[in-house]
Design goal:
The protein is mostly beta strands and 91 residues long. It is 10% helix and 33% strand. The chain has one domain. The chain contains one helix and four strands; from the N terminus they run ββββα.
């Protein structure tokens, strides 16, 4: 199965032990307004969640056994009408 999305992470700041990032989810070769597969919501209907896994070393990647801490950070983004934006760009 080919991945539906690419995830790009852009570090912005590291202050007092807190890393701030901008995250971009890019759809890959799919129609943004329709289901890419049965039972999978379209990109515009999708609600994304983020789980961060911290490791102490790059050795042995990508083994989950190396994860030392798992976090579910808060996503600080404004709600917007994805359908309206995508439809206006596709015109």
């Amino acid at each position: 199965m080919n991945p539906l999305y690419s995830l790009l992470i852009f570090p912005q700041a590291y202050k007092s032990g807190k890393l701030s990032v901008n995250l971009m989810v890019l759809p890959r070769n799919i129609n943004l307004l329709t289901e890419p597969e049965p039972g999978v919501p379209s990109f515009v209907e999708s609600e994304f969640e983020l789980e961060v896994m911290i490791i102490n070393s790059l050795e042995g990647l990508p083994l989950y056994s190396n994860v030392t801490l798992t976090l579910n950070p808060e996503i600080l983004s404004k709600n917007f009408d994805k359908t309206k934006i995508i439809e206006s760009v596709m015109k």
